[in-house]
Design brief:
Largest sheet: 9 strands, antiparallel
Number of strands: 9
Number of helices: 4
Radius of gyration: 19 Å
Order of helices and strands: HEHEHEEEHEEEE
Strand content: 35-45%
Structural class: alpha+beta
Length: about 210
């Protein structure tokens, strides 16, 4: 027997456009009105199942992987507007999200009585600009990869997949109180001798006052 279809509890927005609008407004408000943004942790993990490296690139790739993919579980507290703008996604922007329905695979929202619990699943994309994950996430920059590896890297690209944002928004105030950014991708690099791929997962978790 098929499981009954469950609708969102009363009060929770159900249409994707309404959920996205609620998320965008509360996320942008962090940059404007939050007094404290606490980064609880930042995971930077190597996805070995997404990694394809010829032996000739091992000596180049391993130091780069070690440099970029180091978990940081130290709590960071940002309590000035300048630091919040710099460190809260999207980093170094005065806005946090410009997401639209076209950027998402799915948007869901439930009402637990005190908070709206939102989950946004983003479309996949390669080096997106003004679309998909680029509208809500702080992403790796291709320039940083080239700078880290120097002349060893001729070109680089990022393919993002299965990106998800989950958050809590206080019903009484509309303020975001907690958010988690989960961003996997595959970095493809081309060198003078060969090309390779490295799987990466970035996850940041924030509590907001």
């Amino acid at each position: 027997t098929a499981a009954p279809v469950q609708s969102a509890p009363a009060g929770a927005p159900e249409k994707a456009e309404e959920i996205i609008a609620l998320f965008n407004k509360s996320a942008d408000n962090v940059k404007v009105n939050a007094t404290v943004v606490q980064r609880n942790f930042k995971k930077q993990q190597h996805l070995e199942d997404k990694t394809e490296l010829p032996s000739v690139l091992q000596s180049v790739a391993n130091p780069l992987i070690s440099k970029l993919l180091t978990d940081n579980n130290e709590i960071k507290v940002h309590d000035t507007k300048e630091r919040i703008i710099e460190k809260f996604p999207v980093g170094n922007e005065t806005w946090s999200s410009k997401a639209t329905a076209a950027d998402l695979k799915e948007a869901t929202c439930t009402d637990d009585g005190t908070s709206y619990n939102i989950t946004l699943k983003y479309v996949d994309g390669e080096n997106p600009v003004g679309t998909g994950v680029a509208n809500s996430f702080t992403m790796f920059k291709i320039e940083d990869i080239k700078e880290s590896a120097g002349a060893l890297v001729k070109s680089a690209s990022f393919s993002y997949f299965d990106a998800v944002i989950t958050c809590k928004i206080d019903k009484a105030t509309g303020n975001m109180t907690w958010v988690n950014y989960h961003l996997p991708c595959v970095l493809t690099v081309e060198t003078p001798v060969a090309s390779g791929k490295v799987g990466i997962m970035i996850e940041e978790d924030f509590t907001i006052t």
